[in-house]
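step 3/5: co-fold with flavin-adenine dinucleotide
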Amino acid sequence: MPDVRMQDKEIFTPEHLEFRKTVRRFADTLAPHAEAWDEEGIFPREVFKQAGDLGLLGIRFGEKWGGLGLDWWWTVCYAEELVHSNNAGVNMALMVQSDMATPIIDELGSDEVKAEFLAPAIKGERIAALGVSEPGGGSDVAALRTTARRDGDDYVINGSKLWITNGTRADFVTLAVRTGGEGFGGVSLLVFPTDVKGFSIGKKLKKVGNKASDTAELFFEDCRVPVRYRLGQENMGFYHIMTNFQGERLIAALGCVAGMEKHVREAIRYGNDRKAFGKPLTKFQVWKHKLVEHLTSIEAARRLTYYSVDRFNKDPRSALREITMAKLFAGDLSQRVLYDCMQMYGGFGYTTEYPVSRAWTDARLITIGGGTSEVMKEILTKVEGL
Ligand SMILES: Cc1cc2nc3c(=O)[nH]c(=O)nc-3n(C[C@H](O)[C@H](O)[C@H](O)COP(=O)(O)OP(=O)(O)OC[C@H]3O[C@@H](n4cnc5c(N)ncnc54)[C@H](O)[C@@H]3O)c2cc1C
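step 4/5: write tokens
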């Protein structure tokens, strides 16, 4: 049965709870493979299709394209239940597909582009990636250097992208390119099919966490794509990327909070059984206090993320401050919470067999990916007029 607080029964209807059960069942089928997929550094492509069949890859997208046409509370159910897969890499890959690479296509793509890219992505038949970060830097998006030069009805693309999730097997990339002059006013977005001549993939990057997701460098050498694949107006891409980041950061915060709570609850179960000096670990006051402190902070993080969801549902432009705070708060909190959860298991916590050890290394990404904690603070200093 999904873990839903009494007070959240006002938010989540019986239909939401059914949907939660569907996601949970799916996550439970993935969990037994979690360790092996991390060791292999990849997971079967079929998982995208399975998620697509359940409607998880197009929760908020137009029904015309196969989406469910629902709001962010349904995405909350998806993000919170998916943590039970015990594999942050798989979850990240799926969320790049459902919530990072495709929302801009749903919002800005022409019908032709949606039919060609969005509809098969929602079904899980075509894998999507988001290409913003570059070897020269990820934080300063306005400084990106990959160029798209207009040539008749085509753009000719040259440059490279780094850290691209789903990068080794994406069928298309929602790509940020420079179509104009220096700075944020010269950036555009387009859909880039990876079967275009001149495109190549560098080696799969070895990472300390999120190992089952493939992360790669992508190279573009005189790659031609039609101008009609552009998303939104030329040179307006920076603004669209910043808006897209809101959803990306929100879903990252939601998954992070749910993951923290899951691991604290599991640590409590472990600590109830495991004895030291003649009594269960959870009978030591030091652990009791640590656990309730963490549950308190997690509850605060959850309320902040839920408040962000509410604002984002009502008006996406009104949630910048709260989403930025939620990502910052949850990301930083997860470093302390998962450290302590792992500590509870002693030596067992240091083995990859126990999900907590992988969760600890996976969580390290939350303060880096989708905008670092420092970048979140920079945004907040501007919002707060400091
Ligand atoms: C596993 C993984 C998956 C990823 N997936 C994707 C993806 O699918 N698509 C994509 O486009 N990107 C992806 N990224 C890239 C990610 O978004 C960037 O790593 C991130 O934005 C930081 O950029 P950077 O690594 O270039 O660090 P840099 O920008 O070089 O920053 C280095 C350090 O400097 C700090 N810093 C930067 N600016 C400031 C400032 N103004 N004040 C104080 N400190 C500052 C940063 O916080 C950081 O600590 C992924 C990254 C990883 C590790």
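step 5/5: annotate
The chain has a mean pLDDT of 96.
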